[in-house]
Amino acid sequence: MAIDNSLLSGSTTLLVLKLLEDGEMYGYQMIEELRRRSDRTFELKAGTLYPLLHTLEQQGWVTAREQSGSDTARPRRYYALTEAGRGQLAQKEAEWRTYAAAVTQVLEGGACLA
Amino acid sequence: MAIDNSLLSGSTTLLVLKLLEDGEMYGYQMIEELRRRSDRTFELKAGTLYPLLHTLEQQGWVTAREQSGSDTARPRRYYALTEAGRGQLAQKEAEWRTYAAAVTQVLEGGACLA
DNA sequence: TCTATTATATAGACAATCGATATATCAGGA
DNA sequence: TCCTGATATATCGATTGTCTATATAATAGA
Asked: Which of A29, B30, B39, B86 is the most buried (most CB within 10 A)?
């Protein structure tokens, strides 16, 4: 099922930081990996990701390393989490859990609370 | 914990429709009820809700009934779900579950999938 | 030759939320 | 009495996040 784009809003940063938790990745790879891990639910667009990566870099949450491989058409920019980025990831993960729990509570809690 | 505003984006319509599932409500009441049901996680702003309600009405998902009670300072606009609105609610609820499951999968799935 | 894939980048359009402001009444404290 | 806060709805402009479209450039395959 294709989900409403607007649902994605706000969680994209979390998802991108999460991808970098286990090691560096380049942008195009992130799009593919995110699609794979989410069973095609998330099909992040290039026009969304690249500006976001630049923002994350400016904020000091990731660092970039350009690798102009001879085999690739265009040099890849590998991104890695900084310590600050790890902190942000932890915080955004906690925020997500709070948010998701609250939505679930509204959806299931219905009329009666203790 | 106060969550990032942008996380709310896209789920607001779902939450509002859900509130109306059990009967009609007016705007101000929805703000309070949503805050209560979510344990203060959702503090929907008036500037967000009222334009949204007008949109929902235009789309035919809710109907409005104005009640100028003698005891209230200003007449209340009571909103109720239409049949189309119920359909939308069901669809948005399904979308939410798909989306939330995908985020959880990315957060927990990590590197290894079967 | 032409198209698709890999790989990054930017500009402009669009949607959703917010803060600020407006209006109007009533209750309660200083 | 005056002033603040709560009740109740409404609109405007700013900000943010995502998208589509476009650009560039090399390589593989039909």
From this structure: B30
